[in-house]
Amino acid sequence: MTDFTMQKGDDGVAVITWDVPGKSMNVLSMDGAAELNNLIDDALADEAVKGIVITSGKADFAAGMDLNVLAQMKEGGPQAVFDGVMSLHHLLRKIELAGMDRKTQKGGKPIAAALPGTALGIGLELPLATHRIFAANNPKAKIGLPEIMVGIFPGAGGTTRLIRKLGAMAAAPLLLEGKMNDPAKAKAAGVIDEVVEDPLAAAREWVLKATDADLVKPWEQKSWKMPGGSPYTPGGFMTFLGAAAMVHGKTMGVYPAAKALLSAVYEGALVDFDTALRIEARWFTHVLMNPSSGNMIRSLFINKEALEKGANRPEAPDQRVRKVGVLGAGMMGAGIAYVSANAGIEVVLIDSTQEAADRGKSYSTGILDKGISRKKVTEEKKAEVLGRITATTDYAALAGCDLIVEAVFEDPKVKADVTAKAEAVIPADAIFATNTSTLPISDLAKASTRPEQFIGIHFFSPVDKMALVEIIRGQQTGDRAVAKALDFVRQIRKTPIVVNDARFFYANRCIIPYINEGIRMVGEGVNPTLVENAAKLMGMPLGPLQLVDETSIDLGVKIAKATKAAMGDAYADGDVDAVIFRLADAGRMGRKAKAGFYDYDEAGKRGDLWRGIGENWARAEDQPELTEVQHRLMFVQALEAVRALEQGVLTDIREGDVGAILGWGFAPWTGGPFGWLDMLGAERAVELADKLTAEHGDRFAPPALLRDMAAKGESFYGRFGGQKQAA
């Protein structure tokens, strides 16, 4: 079976169809590229062929390059990567020149692309090499170059062609942010040429009418000038200078792909097109050989996709949810109701008063109205989604629900009460899930008459925006409950990780120490600006002080008191409490109070760090080095992730890395805490952790697992292989 086939029509049009067997969407492999190359050669050599149309046998055109192939290329070293990328450049350049005489720019055969749906990555780079791109009028289709999102950049000519086609300024959102558009917006941006009802028919008609001039790309013409100006023109100079500042401001210098992309664009703009392609290939090779890109590809694509497809799902029949009951219509419950209804699931949303239940349903109304204002949602879609949500106070409405998601206050008594009320009316085989971020699932399950059907589901706020869902297996939770939770998360299009029950589960047990370490340093007299910027310069999306402001300081106080009560003499965060308790006593509860570690204006917009920090906690005369602060903030998270694995809370390092990035934004350039430790090497990690332990305490003590790996010269992905371990 082949990925590409060709059919030559009586009208002289050869249609090359891309249809990868066994894949829901087309991806390009090196074997597939060789097939396409041979078909192009055949069509160009056949005098009976007047033109070529490249299309897809699937509903979409292509999802991009097979990233597993890139991983294999990387194993061969930089020369293998460069040679492989250049082979793609030669193929696409062959399509672009289409047999024309380079001097006269005549004699070529027109080649068009007909896109029935989504075209991403190489799925757009290939069409950009053709002479005209026709896309179906399909508003659900996505067209773009999202490579930057997984730690690389478009390296098959997409960078060079798009810059020359649009100019650096217009191409920046597509290249540097991975922005994807529907066909109409892609046409308006100048990325594609036509949006039609039947792209194959339109493309076939165009190639039969195309002239020699239609085949000559603008940058092949002597009079061509780069849109917006090349680097050393007045307009171009400001564009490239601004782009460099923007990239550094957004990436803080820790994402190699963004810097390499900008270098490829800048250097490529100074030379001819073919030389620019070689420059692009060299910078792409540079990025792919960087450990960061491999880690990002592994976590944000390969592992994330595996988890979403149920890599760790227990053997059980299909547990697709038909009707879900959501107990509690606060922000969390309202968000769960929305994502469920939006995924086509019937929802019963319950609260103690009808007013509260209706208010919870109105949360969905607000999201849908915003979608309508942005032309992403229709009035029909809004009515359809809202029609699936029944807001009520009547527990009898839960009859027929096959899943219950409880999202009431973090109070065991309140949770026990609603558990009993729900179990009195729901079917005997229904699964009951409690949404909690801190309370042990095994303890909450004591309120259930069917603990094997009781499970934890930890959603992150806001539910409609956060991609991760943490599923917590209690001591008595059965496999069917886990399968049900996983199938539900798949239905609502989130990424799940499954962890075993323990205090704070996985995400919170890692993020709370990060927050606490930042607060602890404030108490020590470390400049809070140094603390916040040290975190951001390591790729954390928020500094620990800003993060605690966002989550609320009173919540931190509540967690601290509960943790101290549970741990007794083993509690080791009294120095942290001294800081946040004082803030809480002063009414500085964070963003919601318009006062926390930061100051806020009346609209709630964050301003500068509160000047009172220096007045309450005297600034130390000797400030630590930047790297010391960074190591404290990173190791306190990463070591906790290792402990979670060591203790069996985590059973799969893939879940640990994907969960860390999606759950709390752990420096995505590292691929997650286990990826970061592998980049450091276990021996170096132990050396640094021992140094931190000596200077700052036992919270930095390397776990026995990490010491053992250091002694044996092992890495996490080398030892565990990205597979689930026995609990």
From TrEMBL:
UniProt keyword annotation of Nucleotide-binding present: no
Family annotation (Pfam families): 3HCDH (PF00725), 3HCDH_N (PF02737), ECH_1 (PF00378)
Superkingdom as given in the UniProt entry: Bacteria
InterPro entries: 3-OHacyl-CoA_DH_NAD-bd, 3HC_DH_C, 6-PGluconate_DH-like_C_sf, ClpP/crotonase-like_dom_sf, Enoyl-CoA_hydra/iso, FA_oxidation_alpha_subunit, NAD(P)-bd_dom_sf
Pathway membership, UniProt: Lipid metabolism; fatty acid beta-oxidation
Keyword NAD: yes
Residue ranges of domain 3-hydroxyacyl-CoA dehydrogenase C-terminal in the record: 505-600
Entry keywords, A to Z: Fatty acid metabolism, Lipid degradation, Lipid metabolism, Lyase, Multifunctional enzyme, NAD, Oxidoreductase
Catalytic activity: a (3S)-3-hydroxyacyl-CoA + NAD(+) = a 3-oxoacyl-CoA + NADH + H(+)
Location of the 3-hydroxyacyl-CoA dehydrogenase NAD binding domain: 323-501
PANTHER family: TRIFUNCTIONAL ENZYME SUBUNIT ALPHA, TRIFUNCTIONAL ENZYME SUBUNIT ALPHA, MITOCHONDRIAL
Family to which this protein belongs: In the central section; belongs to the 3-hydroxyacyl-CoA dehydrogenase family.
Name of this protein: 3-hydroxyacyl-CoA dehydrogenase NAD-binding domain-containing protein
